């Protein structure tokens, strides 16, 4: 019987920003993420007697243009593992776009795991991470739970994620603050490319990431949530500095992004643990502690109208149900 | 008879961000500015029979704490030119803080020129620029009109401004957009220090400035206003990238800053010449052409309520009236 593969999404706390190799999605630097329990994708793959894959997302068949990225990915998988079968893919996304998370991380991790299961490839988690990365860079990290490091590597065999601590007892809570009236922004792929090619500061990004990774792993070992917050916020803002210094300059920040950053500073001034991280979009995710999260939530909802928050905790790695 | 010295303020289009020497205000890099006709300071200095300077600003005597920076500066001036006289300073500021400009550039330029006149020092403009710089770095540029370059230099004798083109026929208009509900921000001195010490990207700032200076001067020579706008916007955003990447990160942007940056992009998409520059505060100054300025003004006032704009053109250097 075909199993369902479940993969949770993850949030990068040391960001992935810049591809050294676009085909294999090899990044310029390592990155470090937290897998989240709240948002996941369930995927089932069944072999069909056809030379074309069929993809259903949330019970709706995708048309050719919408399924293209997935079908191309399946071609890659077939090539990597030398088989010819085609599939009917049924994928259900529990990553509401309204929560401000991309679903590509959980989506491609679940798809990779599902093919692994259906084709009895019996892949190691390392190989599964490599396979997922070929679909979407950040998917390589969603194979594992908790804190995860994606090693940049130099080619398709050496670029994969590994867990740092799959169930850290550190009380971290991630609060996603969803900005409704967001301006349409440029894709992360386009954004990365622009930073790499045109930011005068990009050459220092890898040195920064390398030193913040060391500090971050020490902070995990020390269960030092404040330090984790500090590094995460600095790393995220430095990534956004690479968009502001691109030529032409651009920013993913919306007016409300600045409002929320100001609120986070106020909360910290009042002794409440709250640090920001922001991906390639206007939404702010706040790193909180079990103790601070309700206060942060209340303060934001009291101070900005029309803003909702979604709480997430540490999530597990790939599961087969 | 004692003359009034008049100095106009200036806006840096290649920014000054970082002091190599705090005492003499020697910057890490050159900078390039446009002197503006709209905002200026008138200053008169009279020798008084006292061992303490007296300072009037806008017809009001400043108390000891408020006049301290000016009295300290006058001590520096006395030391530099070996005289003992003290002064009654009467200064009138036509730089409304509501227009989003700092008055220290025109203020210290006018004060330096005024002492030069009263004491018959007969200083060259180069020496006057050095003298003004000792009060406020950006004041070194307000000695001249039009486009001005401040050479960073390495010590008190070699750090001074020079005109590039005092009356360029280039049709540049600067529109200051004043954001009312601005959050209180950190001073530029504190901000610079933080960027220099903690931004992982600061080491690339001087290379960037050097190359953008060359391009900018070529654009002046070519009367290429669009190119001037592009370089100015990129340079300003890169300066703000140095605040975002400081540790801890900070930003001078207010929510309305982002709103206006979005509007400027929309204007450009409609073929209207408009480029942003932003100093150490939330206000946006827009580089326009004679043809575009009214459209830019109308569009902003139609799209954001409670926002006013002030228009300025190319200003002259120091004048004695």
UniProtKB/TrEMBL annotation, chains A, B:
Q: Where is the Mvd1 C-terminal domain?
A: 177-308
**UniProt keyword annotation of Lipid biosynthesis present:** yes
Arranged from A to Z, the UniProt key words for this protein are: ATP-binding, Lipid biosynthesis, Lipid metabolism, Lyase, Nucleotide-binding
Q: Which Gene3D superfamilies match?
A: 3.30.230.10, GHMP kinase, C-terminal domain (3.30.70.890)
Q: Where is the Diphosphomevalonate decarboxylase-like N-terminal domain?
A: 7-161
Identify the EC number(s): 4.1.1.33
Q: Which Pfam families does its entry note?
A: MDD_C, MVD-like_N
Q: Which family does it belong to?
A: Belongs to the diphosphomevalonate decarboxylase family.
What is the designated name of this protein? diphosphomevalonate decarboxylase
Organism, as annotated = Companilactobacillus mishanensis
| Gene designation | mvaD
């Amino acid at each position: 019987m075909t199993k369902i593969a479940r993969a949770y999404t993850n949030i990068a706390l040391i960001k992935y920003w810049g591809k050294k190799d676009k085909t294999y999605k090899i990044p310029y630097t390592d990155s470090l993420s937290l897998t989240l329990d709240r948002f996941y994708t369930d995927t089932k793959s069944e072999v069909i007697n056809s030379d074309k894959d069929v993809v259903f997302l949330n019970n709706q068949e995708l048309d050719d243009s919408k399924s293209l990225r997935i079908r191309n990915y399946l071609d890659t998988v077939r090539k990597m593992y030398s088989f010819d079968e085609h599939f009917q893919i049924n994928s259900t996304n529990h990553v509401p776009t309204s929560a401000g998370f991309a679903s590509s991380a959980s989506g491609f991790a679940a798809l990779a795991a599902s093919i692994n299961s259906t084709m009895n490839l019996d892949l190691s988690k390392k190989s599964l991470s490599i396979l997922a990365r070929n679909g979407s860079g950040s998917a390589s990290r969603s194979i594992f739970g908790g804190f995860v490091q994606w090693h940049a590597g130099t080619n398709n065999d050496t670029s994969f994620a590994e867990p740092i601590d799959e169930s850290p007892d550190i009380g971290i809570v991630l609060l996603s603050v969803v900005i409704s009236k967001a301006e349409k922004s440029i894709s992360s792929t386009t954004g990365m490319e622009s930073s790499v090619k045109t930011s005068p500061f990009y050459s220092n990004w890898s040195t920064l990431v390398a030193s913040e990774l060391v500090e971050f792993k020490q902070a995990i070992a020390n269960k030092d949530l404040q330090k984790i917050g500090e590094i995460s916020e600095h790393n995220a803002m430095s990534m956004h500095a690479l968009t502001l210094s691109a030529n032409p300059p651009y920013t993913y920040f919306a007016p409300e992004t600045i409002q929320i950053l100001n609120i986070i500073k106020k909360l910290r001034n009042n002794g409440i643990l709250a640090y920001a991280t922001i991906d390639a979009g206007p939404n702010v995710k706040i790193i909180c502690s079990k103790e601070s999260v309700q206060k942060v939530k209340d303060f934001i909802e009291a101070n900005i109208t029309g803003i909702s928050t979604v709480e997430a905790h540490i999530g597990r790695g790939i599961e087969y149900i």
